[in-house]
Design goal:
Elements (H helix, E strand, L loop, with lengths): L1 E2 L17 E4 L2 E5 L5 H12 L13 E7 L2 E9 L11 H9 L3 H6 L1
Parallel strand pairs: 1-4
Antiparallel strand pairs: 2-3, 3-5, 4-5
Length: about 110
């Protein structure tokens, strides 16, 4: 998938704030930051397919090569999992709202 700009991405980063995410035409794309996040999400979601969970109880990810501008990222894609009026609330955002500081900075200390 090729992107020239972020599409529906305001506040759409990982819990550390470093994983790029895009939603385009009902598909979410997540680019790896450290090189392995997508592979982990792919493996876990495909293991969950073998579990007793119903398909609507987890998000299934597939591997995807994502081109953003001139950079090519490894990553994953999934169907849009947000219901109408829903939003992504990251662990970083919850922590910052509750404690008034970054989880990442607290972790480093």
């Amino acid at each position: 998938m090729k992107f020239e700009q972020n599409i529906r991405t305001n506040d759409r980063q990982s819990s550390k704030g470093n994983q790029l995410k895009w939603e385009n035409e009902g598909i979410w794309y997540k680019a790896d930051y450290t090189g392995y996040e997508g592979l982990v999400e792919y493996m876990i979601s495909h293991l969950l397919k073998k579990s007793s969970l119903a398909e609507n109880e987890f998000v299934c990810y597939d591997l995807e090569e994502i081109k953003y501008g001139t950079v090519i990222y490894n990553g994953v894609k999934s169907p849009d999992f947000l219901g109408k009026g829903w939003q992504i609330i990251t662990l970083e955002r919850l922590f910052r709202n509750f404690f008034g500081e970054s989880l990442q900075m607290r972790w480093i200390e």
